[in-house]
Amino acid sequence: MLGHLGFSYVGLIYLLMLWIPNTIWSKNKPIDYNSSQENKILLLFERVGQVCCTCSILFFSDFIIVPFSAWSWWLITSFFLMILYEISWIRYFVNEHTEEYFYRSFCGIPVPGASLPVLAFLLLGIYGKVIWLIASAIIIGIGHIGIHLQHLKAIKQVI
């Protein structure tokens, strides 16, 4: 349950799926985006979770793909959530770059830019039986999803 040290190519794939759209977003932020009001406690959870998730997902080798078993469904579901995450980014990039488009739900999932990767990382941690990734996903989820929900709430107050 603690995990075996070693490089994870699956972890690298997940991080690339996470970082590439975020890098593109940093150059295409919503025109009405304002991060100055973000809760500092949630921001701390987000940052700590980011570091812990990155380390956990890269440096534990328990996420490798093994012959199919019932346990494989954790990995399949996790990867499916990452595919949905990529599709939600495409939806944002082809529409107006506003906070309303950025934070709107996708396939009934609220704040998909935060909730989809957090859930994917949580399920990947379960698949690999790595408590460090499970805990890291919970930590980042508190911060990242919390911040996104605050932005969504602020948008709804304006509308």
From TrEMBL:
Residue ranges crossing the lipid bilayer per the database entry: 6-24, 44-65, 71-94, 101-124, 130-149
Keyword Transmembrane: yes
Keywords, sorted A to Z: Membrane, Transmembrane, Transmembrane helix
Protein name per UniProt: Uncharacterized protein
Organism: Bacillus salipaludis
